[in-house]
Write a structure and sequence with these properties.
- By secondary structure, this protein is mainly beta.
- Helix content is 3%, strand content 54%.
- The relative contact order is 0.23.
Length: 155
């Protein structure tokens, strides 16, 4: 019910969609152009999980600036591995992700190219976390530093 300044009353229905976002507490990206397979990404935070949430058997996928990895949590724990990458997810929604591999090509379109030497340049990295059927998109601004052609660090 709403009343305008003339005293007219209107009644109606308004549908509201609430999109819950994860709380990202840390994002760190390291790229090495000197050695293949030595790149790493660390991400941690809190996902909005329902009361009584159980980690067993949950599927979790992450997309950090185009670097993707999927995990399935085991029936007897909260930590899953996929190659050299891993995720830990607690029943309260706290999570940490560690990705290892070669990520420079996937992150180049996010501005993490490493083609010029720079220091502490702010960049925003898109992040999507998927827990079961729920998708949680967000963004995190990092400070990007690079030594041209050698390495990139962003945190």
């Amino acid at each position: 019910t709403a009343t305008d300044e003339s005293g007219n009353v209107g009644v109606g229905t308004v549908n509201v969609t609430v999109t819950l976002q994860p709380l990202i507490t840390k994002l760190q990206i390291k790229l090495s152009f000197a050695a293949s397979g030595k790149d790493s990404i660390s991400l941690s935070g809190v996902l909005p999980v329902p009361v009584g949430f159980k980690t067993a058997g949950q599927s979790v996928a992450v997309d950090i600036g185009g670097v993707t990895q999927s995990f399935t949590l085991p029936a007897n724990g909260s930590t899953a591995k996929a190659g050299a990458s891993r995720i830990k997810l607690s029943a309260n929604g706290k999570f940490s992700v560690s990705l290892k591999g070669t990520f420079a090509a996937a992150l180049a379109d996010e501005g993490l190219a490493g083609t010029a030497s720079v220091k502490n340049v702010p960049l925003t990295v898109p992040i999507t976390l998927q827990l079961g059927d729920s998708t949680f998109p967000t963004r995190r601004t990092v400070l990007y530093s690079a030594v041209a052609g050698k390495s990139v660090r962003a945190k």
